[in-house]
Amino acid sequence: MTQDILQGAEHGTRGRRILVSHNTIAEKAIRLLNQHDIDVFFSPPYDPSDVVARRAAELAIDGFMVRQGRINAEVIAASPKLKVIAKHGVGVDNVDLEAAAKLGIPVLRAMGSNSRAVAEHTIALALSLVKEVLPLDKAVKSGAWPKPTFVGKDFLGATIGLVGYGGIGRETARMAQALGMEVVVYDPYAPTAAEADGFASAADVDAMLPSLDILSIHCPLTAATRNLIDARRLGLMKASAVLVNTARGGIINEADLAEALESGTIAGAALDSFETEPPAADSPLWSLKTLIATPHIGGVTYGSADAMAIIAAQHIISVLDGNAPDERSIARPTELSA
């Protein structure tokens, strides 16, 4: 067994083994797993799938904790002992759900673990866009002083539209309301939830776009939501509007977004996720002054990292101990397969 396979494992002598697709998880989660007779092994993020599959096979893992990288059919089938896949987080577009389902392996999400963190990041990006923080920063540092001509925008009375109203959408709506914004929500899977919380709801995406000052994405990537925001829908937005995506890459057509930003169809965008991660170094997005980019870290805070790892560990322990997987946390191919 190669040394890289053993990276991070304490002894490798317990009765059960899991592989984590990252270099680390919260120490609390490792201790919890060890206490339940489970050794924890690590595989560097974004390693090729064939390399990860070989590690899984050589270790004969019982469980997989997914952080980063693509977990395809080859990886899932590599260990005949694999009984459970747990996501260190909520999004599962990097897991082949159909391949897991065919083998009877449940894929479980750490529901609610990072809602607050992602909502905070969403609002931070929206604030930066609307208040034009980056261009003002660049201007001052270059020796300019735009104070005589600059007039900023207000959050009070601005309208934010949310696509998706799960845990993160709810947290974002509350924070936006606290800043004085009007909130409108589109979520066909929870059509009455927003109104029950006192927010307006839209019948479809197209209907709400023309009135928005901010569009924020909070839905999963599925076959139905891939390229949901394309050139046509960007064209329905106000020229002064901005777009924030802290959900999943692929929901926004990046080529169409680049053109919209270049032409001034919308005023700006902030992306925390991309169709390909890491994105290409020569992406046309990087030349745009009205784009803010962060490396898919919206949900990565000390608090959420602990919560994601512990919930994922609890899912793994429960299934390996012979319990049925938590129904509320199961990612089903019919619902989420992209």
Description:
With 338 residues, the protein is of the alpha/beta class. It folds into 2 domains: 16-112 and 302-331, NAD(P)-binding Rossmann-like Domain (Rossmann fold, 3-Layer(aba) Sandwich); 114-293, NAD(P)-binding Rossmann-like Domain (Rossmann fold), CATH 3.40.50.720. Helices cover 34% and strands 14% of the residues. A 7-stranded parallel β-sheet has the order 8-7-6-9-10-11-12, with helices on one face. Helix 2 links the parallel strand 1 (16-20) and strand 2. Helix 2 (27-35) packs parallel to helix 13 and helix 6 crosses helix 8 (167-178). The radius of gyration is 21 Å and the shape is elongated. Residues 1-10 have low confidence and may be disordered. Belongs to the D-isomer specific 2-hydroxyacid dehydrogenase family. Residues 19-326 form the D-isomer specific 2-hydroxyacid dehydrogenase catalytic domain. Residues 123-298 form the D-isomer specific 2-hydroxyacid dehydrogenase NAD-binding domain.
**CATH level-two architecture of the largest domain:** 3-Layer(aba) Sandwich
The sequence of SSEs as H and E is: HEHEHEHEHEHHEHEHEHEHEHEEHH
- Cα distance, first to last residue? 35 Å
Number of strand elements? 12
- The CATH H-level homologous superfamily of the largest domain: NAD(P)-binding Rossmann-like Domain
Principal-axes shape call = elongated
Low-confidence stretches are 1-10
Number of helices: 14
**Gyration radius over CA:** 21 Å
User: At the third CATH level, what is the topology name of the largest domain?
Assistant: Rossmann fold
Percent of residues in helices comes to: 25-40%
Structural class: alpha/beta
Instruction: State the domain count.
Output: 2
The side-by-side strand order for the widest beta sheet comes to 8-7-6-9-10-11-12
Strand proportion, as a percent range, falls in: 5-15%
What number is the mean pLDDT?
93
Largest sheet: 7 strands, parallel
